[in-house]
Fold this sequence. Notes:
- The chain has 176 residues and is α/β, with parallel strands linked by helices.
- It is 24% helix and 28% strand.
- It has 5 helices and 8 strands.
- The protein has helices spanning 4-14, 27-35, 81-84, 97-106, 122-130; strands at residues 41-44, 53-68, 79-80, 89-92, 117-119, 135-139, 151-157, 162-170.
- Strands 1, 2, 3, 4, 5, 6, 7 and 8 form an 8-stranded mixed β-sheet that branches.
- Strand 4, helix 4 (97-106) and strand 5 (117-119) form a beta-alpha-beta unit.
Amino acid sequence: HYFLPAVLRHYHERFPRIRVRILDESANEVLSAVVHGEAELGLNMIGSDEPTIDFEPLLSEPFVAACHRDHPLARHRTVTWAELGRYDFMTVDKASGNRLVMDLALASRRDRPQARFETRHVSTLVAFVEAGLGVAAVPRLSMPRKGHAALVSVPIVEPEVTRTVGLIKRRGRSLS
């Protein structure tokens, strides 16, 4: 959510007459919109295995622990998935591409955290963390920059889980 405004600003400066409609949906819904021609392109972490989709990787980012500044984990240099599970852990629901990435990476681990709260959007998780309801694992770019009054991000290790975000569009179609 924090890199999208920079991308939009860049393209608005280069192409000021292009009208942009943002569909702020889950990864599955964005992929479906592109596949069915409801959107010309999308920013997504899924689609690289889809035969009708071209996936151009843009960045790879790790998941981090989102903690309230007053939380005990906020003082750690790194945290493990097991440590996250010792607190009120929150996550996105199974409809989220982020959840798919985490579930695949942690499938064989017995010490993976069990969620007390689930929500559809990462931005809601971050707001819950800010309100002091628990901790969450979120993509690094979903967190505000350093110096936020209430939020801290801590790298998660054992294992480090990353996602690749890319531009998706229908194969063989040029953009308008």
